[in-house]
Design goal:
25 strands; 6-stranded antiparallel beta sheet; about 20% strand; Calcium-transporting ATPase, cytoplasmic transduction domain A; 7-stranded mixed beta sheet; about 800 residues; 27 helices; alpha+beta; Alpha-Beta Plaits
Length: about 800
């Protein structure tokens, strides 16, 4: 199965997406299509053997929408097939670079792909609102219903009715045209949406007034229709501004990428658009530059700030052979690197893709809201017709009164608020998560994360750093820690063994003596001549074989081993000079993360291949009560199933390939961002900062988002339950005019949109408190190492 996100221009109404989804899912080979008006795109899962991206694009076009193809945001788009021709190394190449720069500047001005269409729609709706208001004011002044003062005579000796007709036509036809187009498009696709109700209300009032002007004597609704449309347009303008603001997270991510890159072509430095960089090209980076694409350093060293992508606050030292990430910032030296991933394959592009897919997915509540919205439109039409029949034919009310109530029902029942309730919250929630290094891959995971009963952490690489560190040094009497470390590091110099690397890392810049005659002692350690004297480095077995007495350090060695440490013995000239304890160090926020989860009522379990005794000691240090020990890699998914069989909803946190089955089996899988691609592909949530505390942040974010969904759905449903009887005149003499109904309808939609945007503030505060909880006081408690 393939997956593509297509740009859909002109998703005007919140329920427009239903028509696109319906037509796409009717295509052979399409298993799922999810459109999102807020992002102006549709994500499609399809079988490449049965259909194609181009055929799907034509299907979108046949629905009445614009579609230029797959969404490829600027700087992250697929590169062209050919670089600038090598034969034109001089002025033409410079011209090509300038052209690319100009094109990118234009793209920046226009926005980002589908997002540009939403911004254009916001401006268009604003313009239509001002046109409608401009002509509505004189309509109100000249209308008999305005009546506050005697209006001037109409110009050109026109009759009042004819003059109002011209004004109303100007106030209605152009400003309301998108609603008529959207209504026709919806009906053609077999969908009932808000545009249908707007057309029924505005169209009924306008056509009735035109008829009474030219065909038959009767009342006119020019003023009511114009005022009604002004409020509808105002509400839609504000709503669209909110929808455009909800996609701010993706735009912020895209702005991380630099528009231009300096590459070496034919031995010359050439500035080209980032989107034109080819795999294998050499790129030049100077201090302060942003790195355009992913690659590997081939010359030079530098400090790289990767915080915008990984969340690591400290710059990272990079040298020849190290990988660099596109959109990170070069802080110090100059270097050259070879591009290894460009276009849609870069880390930034993959993050953007994850966020887009999450925002285009639907929470279970949204599926119900979509169906309810369509039924609501049908019910509104039936109630509107029943209202007219009841008041005009049964109760004998005046025609003006009956038509007014009918129009009011059509207007007030518009289901935009119900359609916006969930996707707006999902857009803001997933976007905010992305800016904080928490990537939800779908809206379902956002909802499921609120229901978790237990979080299972894989120990190595998740709760721990996944690599050994020196955690303790015990020196013999008369020796210092530095003496022990210098001798051990001298023997291990040049070794790639994980324990050797841990010792060398701890030794840092210590001056080391020359080493000769290095010999590896299989299964025991190593020996060498350091400064002309024999040094033994290894386990107790090596000491016993070489008759090195442990003396006073024997008890310390037993204690360290009992605590799960790997103990390295260091002997010099036949005497034991010290012990080096090595263990897998915990992540700084592991203890705080466990405590925060338990505080929120979530059980925490640790899954490890360690024996039960060691595992329990580790769990006790971290504050974890449930231990799943002696678990083979292939048994991890089975352990998750066992917890689920107890009726628990399980979240699994892992980083390795062998965690993938368990991540898939869990109700919600969390992948540590520093882990493998397989783990991240299998997970529902990716934690870019590799921080276990972000599991807490993800749950806090999910609960806040779900709370906004429920608030919005409650308001949308309550609004319609109250509004229908009032609009239909059930509470007569308490009635409302179409204009007031338009204010209420627009206000409900705007309220839902603004309430979702408030999630930004609420969520940020929540994450801020969470991070604060993992401050120095908490982190100091994680100093105890974890057995390797």
């Amino acid at each position: 199965m393939a997956n593509v996100t297509l740009e859909v221009g002109g998703l005007f109404e919140e329920l427009d997406h239903l028509g696109v989804e319906k037509q796409l899912e009717a295509e052979d080979g399409v298993s799922r299509a999810v459109a999102n008006p807020a992002s102006g795109s549709v994500t499609i899962d399809f079988d490449e053997g049965l259909t194609s991206e181009e055929k799907l694009r034509r299907t979108v076009l046949s629905c009445g929408f614009r579609c230029r193809g797959a969404v490829h945001p600027r700087h992250v788009c697929k590169p062209g097939p050919d670089p600038v021709p090598s034969a034109h190394a001089g002025h033409e190449r410079v011209a090509a670079a300038r052209k690319a720069h100009a094109q990118d500047a234009m793209a920046h001005e226009m926005g980002h792909g589908a997002g540009a269409d939403m911004q254009a729609m916001v401006r268009d709706m604003r313009n239509r609102f001002w046109v409608a208001l401009l002509f509505t004011i004189p309509i109100f002044v000249y209308s008999p219903m305005g009546g506050m003062f005697t209006p001037p005579a109409p110009p050109f000796e026109l009759g009042l009715d004819l003059w109002l007709f011209f004004l109303a036509s100007a106030a209605v036809i152009y400003p309301s045209w998108p609603f008529f187009v959207a209504a026709w498009r919806a009906l053609r696709n077999g969908i009932l949406n808000m545009a249908v109700l707007v057309v029924l209300s505005v169209g009924t009032g306008y056509l009735f007034s035109v008829g009474s002007t030219f065909l038959f004597p009767g009342v006119q609704f020019y003023e009511a229709v114009a005022v009604l449309l002004v409020f509808i347009l105002l509400g839609h303008w504000l709503e669209m501004r909110a929808r455009a603001g909800a996609s701010q997270a993706i735009r912020a991510l895209l702005d991380l990428a630099p528009p231009m890159a300096t590459v070496i072509r034919d031995g010359r430095e050439v500035e080209i658009a980032t989107s034109e960089v080819q795999v294998g090209e050499t790129i030049i980076i100077k201090p302060g530059n942003k790195i355009p694409v992913d690659g590997e350093i081939v010359e030079g060293t530098s400090l790289i700030d990767e915080s915008m992508l990984t969340g690591e606050s400290m710059p990272v030292n990079k040298a020849v052979g190290d990988e660099v990430i596109g959109a990170s910032i070069n802080k110090s030296g100059s270097f050259r690197y070879k591009a290894t991933k460009v276009g849609a394959d870069t880390a930034l592009a993959q993050i953007v893709k994850l966020v887009q897919e999450a925002q285009n997915s639907k929470a279970p509540a949204q599926l119900l809201a979509d169906r309810a919205s369509q039924w609501l439109v049908l019910i509104a039409i039936l109630i509107g017709l029943a209202t007219f029949a009841t008041w005009f034919w049964w109760l004998g009310a005046p025609l003006l009164f009956a038509v007014t109530l009918t129009i009011t029902v059509f207007v007030i029942a518009c289901p935009d608020a119900l359609g916006l309730a969930t996707p707006m919250a999902v857009m803001v929630g997933t976007g905010l998560g992305a800016t904080n290094g928490i990537l939800f891959k779908n809206a379902g995971a956002l909802e499921e994360a609120t229901k978790l009963d237990v979080i299972v952490f894989d120990k190595t690489g998740t709760l721990t750093m996944g690599q050994p560190h020196v955690v303790d040094i015990v020196a013999a009497e008369g020796r210092s820690d530095e003496d022990v470390l210098r001798l051990a590091a001298a023997v291990e110099r040049g070794s790639e063994h994980p324990l050797a690397l841990a010792i060398l890392d701890r030794a840092g810049d210590l001056a080391l003596d020359d080493v000769r005659d290095f010999h590896n002692r299989e299964g025991m350690g190593a020996e060498a001549l350091v400064g002309g004297s024999t040094v033994l480095l290894g386990n107790r077995r090596l000491m016993d074989e070489e008759n090195v007495p442990l003396g006073a350090l024997s008890e310390a060695a037993d204690e360290l081993k009992g605590a799960g440490r790997t103990v390295v013995h260091v002997a010099h000239k036949g005497d034991l000079v010290g012990l080096i304890a090595i263990a897998d160090a915990p992540r700084p926020t592991a203890v705080a993360a466990v405590a925060a989860l338990r505080k929120r009522g979530v059980e925490v379990a640790m899954l490890t291949g360690d024996n039960e005794g060691t595992a329990k000691r580790v769990a006790a240090q971290l504050g974890i009560g449930t231990v799943l020990a002696d678990v083979l890699p292939g048994q991890k998914a089975d352990k998750v199933k066992e917890l689920q069989a107890q009726g628990k909803r399980v979240g699994m946190v892992g980083d390795g390939i062998n965690d993938a089955p368990a991540l898939t089996q869990a109700d919600v899988g969390f992948a540590i961002g520093a882990g493998t691609d397989v783990a991240m592909e299998s997970a529902d949530v990716v934690l870019m900062r590799s921080d276990p505390y972000d599991v807490v942040g993800a749950i806090v974010l999910s609960k806040a988002t779900l709370r906004k969904m429920h608030q919005n759905l409650f308001w949308a449903v309550a609004y319609n339950v109250i509004a229908f009887p009032v609009a239909a005149g059930v509470l007569y003499p308490l009635i409302i005019s179409p204009a007031v109904a338009a204010i209420a309808m627009s206000g409900s939609s705007a309220l839902v949109a603004v309430n979702a945007l408030l999630l930004k503030r609420t969520r940020m505060e929540g994450i801020g408190r969470s991070v604060a909880e993992s401050g120095e006081s908490d982190r100091s408690s994680t100093a105890s190492p974890i057995p390797a």
